[in-house]
What we know:
There is one protein chain. 47% of the residues lie in helices and 10% in strands. The protein is mainly α. The chain has a three-stranded antiparallel β-sheet, with no helix packed on it. Strands 1-2 form a two-stranded antiparallel sheet. Strands 3-4 form a two-stranded antiparallel sheet. A hairpin with a 6-residue loop joins strand 8 and strand 9 (229-233). The protein is globular and about 55 Å long. The two termini are 15 Å apart.
Amino acid sequence: MKKTLSILLVAVAIAFNGHASIQTDKTPAPWLKKATDVINYQLKQASNKYSPGQNPRSTNPDGSVRLANYKDWTTGFFPGSLWYGYELTGDKDLASQAKRFTLALDSVRYIKDTHDVGFMLYCSYGNAYRITGDKTYLPALADGAQNLYNRFNPKVGAIRSWDFSWWHFPVIIDNMMNLEYLYWASGQFKKPAYADAANTHALTTIKNHFRKDYSSYHVIDYDAKTGNVIAKRTHQGVTDESAWARGQAWALYGYAMCNENAKNATFLAQAENIAKFIMNHPRMPKDKVPVWDFDVHNALDVEEKAPRDASAAAVIASALLNLSTQVKDGQKYFKYAEDILKSLSSDAYLAKPGENNFFILKHSVGAFLYNSEIDTPLDYADYYYLEALKRYAAITKL
Length: 398
């Protein structure tokens, strides 16, 4: 693991884009070294076990692996994890495997019926191009971005999430994540309309998705002809009015990312208000890994009964680290994210090498109400955990 150790040699105090600074120790923390070793082992074993185009998504109740083909909304996360793993460890074998698994998703460029092309392509092809600069990845990214933009309705002021027949024009809070693809594509392909659509979508979401306490609804259903709100619902939370944990994480991440791209004070204020809701929530467990919904009925005993969602924690950590670089008092966000990462890197959540079907994290929740992926590893939990670790290493100069 000489390459891993070389990545984790020296930590220094740095300035955050002219804002806050973080003072760190001069030696890498044992928890980070341990996590990096596990990541390297698990990803290398997984990339050898699984086949490109059939990516590991989660674990079934019988212990077998649930695989994701190119049409699955999660299919971009495993290739993306391999790219992040390469960045964290410097292991060129991971880069080779990342390329194999990324190129197997070329057909995603033709998918037009979901906003999830952002997750599917930007997390895989987007990271591939960012890291390598290889223009081979650009045609698929160009097609996918156009297909995502085509789902924008100016009357509604938002991008349609799903084409499910039982909704009129549904927009889910998850959709905030895919705006990053449009911001990037706007600059890369000289398409200013993409960034305009992303900004408009984010403003529309502020207007209609949030309650007074800055918690978010999951689904807003619009009338496509008038732009009026038809209903405010949930698809994965415990009730329409509850704070589904991963939804709050998507929201926080989305607005921190939007401000990073658009430099809009409205987006920054929204991100900070969402962060306050999450960080000060009275039902947040001591280890800062939330249960699947903050308003689950047995929430007063959350640490004993309700399933945790490591995927929500990983997204929150990555989002807070991003937000910490954008404000003068970023230390509070950095410290909270660091606490999350320490929890996720503990034996309670981090898999032992060779176990967990070679996933990295344990204890996430996909869709509780549908009895789907409960207390299981999830590919997107791993992806955002790795992204958070990468951001942590960049901030602390590890």
